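Hello again,

I reread your note about wanting to compare the complex against the isolated chains. To keep things tidy I'm splitting this into two emails, and this first one only covers the full assembly. Below are the input lines as submitted, including protein chains and any nucleic acid or small-molecule components. They are followed by the predicted structure of everything together. The single-chain runs will come separately.
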Amino acid sequence: MNRIVTISREFGSGGREIGKRLADELGFAYYDREIITEIAKKVGMSEEYINHISEKGVTPYAFQFAKSFVMYSNLQSSQTDILVAETKILKEIAKKGDCVIVGRGANHILKDYNPMNLFVYADMKSKINRCRMKREDEKMTDKELEKEIMQIDKNRKNYHRIISNLEWGDKNAYHLCINTSGIEIKTMIAPLANYIENWFRRI
Amino acid sequence: MNRIVTISREFGSGGREIGKRLADELGFAYYDREIITEIAKKVGMSEEYINHISEKGVTPYAFQFAKSFVMYSNLQSSQTDILVAETKILKEIAKKGDCVIVGRGANHILKDYNPMNLFVYADMKSKINRCRMKREDEKMTDKELEKEIMQIDKNRKNYHRIISNLEWGDKNAYHLCINTSGIEIKTMIAPLANYIENWFRRI
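Full-complex prediction:
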């Protein structure tokens, strides 16, 4: 069976960097935004619309915010289409070969493929610092940035609720939870890759 | 500053084995039950009594179960004595040299020493299996064993509430959370030790 590493992550924790670097170190394929591109092709919607639906999560609560019942029904039906396409694409990826997949609830959707599931998180100070380094030109205050980080993670949590009974970020759903507060990610990749290789050897 | 690794763990998850093996691999001192022995010497109580108080955690709820107010007051005063002694002993240990400390809320008590805090956990099936391997002669059913495991962890949670605002097992209180379900611990020690060494190099 192919070795699949899934990475769930808090916004600003460096989960994507960990994913990319791990894929390089392990010699695994890497999937992240290209999954959205593939979904967009399959369902004939724009990537922005898919991102919007996926990130907000069309829960029953969304009904309050939809302007009409028709709009709510459309949202729900789009979400179903997206989930069906996403599941199909993730399973195709899983069959191709060893890989690292960031986000998209892959830990849950691919559970029959026995993936190794990582969760990457950090304290708020580290997440703000990491966001600042990436968007040097932005003029957000720390308070505004903190609000944005919390909102994005809230959306991820909502999205996860649609596909799984386990809470997003609940450590029991993951094999290793990595706190990146104050650490330089590239220095941790070699031992992490080694841990992952040993983990897969257990089977 | 000395490198201090603290290990908090669910009962049956193999946290103690990880601690011992990591200490060997890293060449660090290892502390576990000897802390209770030292507390017993300092406060002049038996190790059994200290274990009892520490594991139950004398919360306000304990009052319902104490047979009299005097008994409750004695329990409370014993607990304070134990906590004072424990804090002193843990700080002495922290000053001695690099070490691995299992349990005793060391992650919280030694927070000014910047320890690296690990949390070790596993699914119930793995915890039951691990307990069975250690106590081959016991005739407990799986149901009974599960109940015991849950009770011990509940006690640890209660004890932790006395010393910290963060919940026992809340991943935000730890730098790495390791799920040992289905893995052979000794195969994971080398990469873990390597991860820990790199983590301390960040400062």
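For quick reference: Residues 69-96 of chain A form the longest helix (28 residues).

B.
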